[in-house]
Amino acid sequence: MNIGIVGKIGTGKSTVAQWFADRKNFVRIDMDAVGHQVLVQSSTVRAQLQKKLPEIFSQGSMLSRGKIASIVFQDKAKLEILNSIIHPEMIKSIESTLQRNDARDVVIDGALLYEMGLDRWCDAVLFIESNYERAVKRSNRSSRDFWKIWKSQEFLDARREQAHFVIDNSGDESQLIEKISDIYSRIKTMK
Questions:
Q1: What angle do CA 44, 112, 141 make, to 5 degrees?
Q2: Of 4, 58, 125, 180, which sits most exposed with the smallest number of CB within 10 A?
Q3: What is the mean pLDDT of the chain?
Q4: E strand or H helix at 168
Q5: What is the pLDDT of residues 145-174, one digit of tens each?
Q6: Domain total in the chain
Q7: Range of the domain at 150
Q8: From CA 132, how far away is CA 150, in angstroms rounded?
Q9: Where are any strands of DSSP class E within the chain?
């Protein structure tokens, strides 16, 4: 069984995905981690980025994650360039992981699951939502940086309707765990 987890920054996607990994022994794919891995390990991606987005590098060939975030979450065109370079490699990596773990349950944690076409691998997709105040409290980012990312992810609200299940994570962790357990029981009956 493959489950996708979608939602905006700070809504609790990672907490939900980790519940599946810890409590139900799912293999967890963290799309943010895969993206960072591609940035670090793929010389092809780095070369394309140096050519098309040289401003995200500091001191020659050193990628600056801070610069990436500050630039791409303010400039939609640059975000599209970044995504057009990184996403194909991320998709290859994630699909390879899914194929290697074909006999195991997998949870894919990532805001851009639908945008990258990875929902086609999922038996169910969970949309995690939370109110802004609660989400910003969960984050370790400045409120200004958090707001930029939150606003840049407004398109994700439309994904709520596409998901099989919606979890409101505006409460405490025990409420979230109860909701996840209930939905997991319902997902098992779908197969």
A1: 90
A2: 58
A3: 92
A4: strand 165-168
A5: 888 888 888 899 999 999 999 999 999 999
A6: 1
A7: 2-190
A8: 8
A9: 2-7, 27-30, 57-58, 62-63, 106-109, 124-129, 165-168
